[in-house]
Design a protein that fits this description.
Subcellular location: Nucleus, Nucleolus
Number of strands: 6
Helix content: 40-55%
Order of helices and strands: HEHHEHHEHEHEEHHH
Strand order of the largest sheet: 3-2-1-4-5-6
Pfam family, one: Fcf1
Family: Belongs to the UTP23/FCF1 family. UTP23 subfamily.
Structural class: alpha/beta
Number of helices: 10
CATH topology of one domain: Rossmann fold
Function: Involved in rRNA-processing and ribosome biogenesis.
Oligomer: single chain
Radius of gyration: 37 Å
Shape: rod-shaped
Keywords: Nucleus, Ribosome biogenesis, rRNA processing
CATH class of one domain: Alpha Beta
């Protein structure tokens, strides 16, 4: 694996780890296009991908993808066998299966809470099959959603696509505190509770004592208080003055 490609992947992985909380094992969604390409090109994705992403990975697919491969007949029988080896993630189409591209797109809705990667196969030359066209359309739709890394296989070479403009714009809004996704809010609350930073109800905040100068009231000059004898003498004088006037 080239040093330049590995540095490229490491830089992009840092972006998703720091801004979208991607953690090992990385969940990689695969579709029928890739399964067929892996069979034809003898791609050892299970062995190569962890080294490229510098972390443990889990390859997974959905029941709709397997159903789609089954409906396409014997030509994709080998691709179906490959897809069945991956972990099958539950989707919302148990009773009414949909196309593989529609199903995978639904798996990354609502901010991609399960932190899925999307893995696709692209041909460098030649005409693509109908499945490849669907896969290209799916990749374009994925790029319109923030926080979803795209992995491509081009001529047996893995390439981690750079963050889409949607992901870059989303991170810029986060940095300016204009937007906080709900799953991040919940994660922050859970983390604070775990660390004991959230105060229980009824608990009063303790005011910090600030170091300051002397009390300004204590600096005022004390007023001279009249003694009780002085007050009695002054009242006696007033009474005498009143008597003289009355006479």
């Amino acid at each position: 694996m080239g040093v330049t490609r590995q540095k490229h992947a490491k830089k992009i992985m840092g972006f998703y780890k720091n801004n979208f909380q991607f953690r090992e094992p990385f969940q990689v969604l695969l579709d029928g296009t890739f399964c067929q390409a892996a069979l034809r090109n003898k791609i050892q994705i299970r062995e190569q991908l962890p080294g490229y992403l510098d972390g443990a990975t889990q390859l997974c697919t959905t029941r709709c993808v397997i159903k789609e491969l089954e409906s396409l007949g014997k030509a994709l029988y080998g691709a179906k066998l490959i897809a069945q080896r991956f972990q099958v993630r539950n989707c919302s189409h148990h009773k009414n299966p949909v196309s593989g591209s529609t199903c995978l797109l639904s798996m990354i809705e609502d901010g991609n809470p399960h932190h899925f990667f999307k893995l696709s196969f692209l041909k460098a030359h030649g005409k693509c099959s109908s499945i490849s066209f669907e896969d290209q359309d799916l990749s374009n739709k994925v790029k319109r959603k923030p926080g979803i890394p795209l992995l491509f296989i081009i001529q047996n070479t893995m390439v981690l696509d750079k963050p889409s403009p949607k992901s870059l714009g989303f991170v810029q809004k986060l940095q300016t505190n204009q937007l906080v996704p709900e799953y991040q809010k919940q994660s922050i609350v859970e983390l604070k509770e775990k660390e004991g930073l959230v105060k229980q109800e009824g608990e009063k905040r303790r005011k910090r004592k600030r170091a300051g100068g002397p009390n300004p009231l204590s600096c005022l000059k004390k007023k001279k208080k009249k003694t009780q004898e002085g007050q009695e003498a002054s009242t006696e004088k007033k009474k005498r003055r009143k008597r003289k006037r009355n006479r």
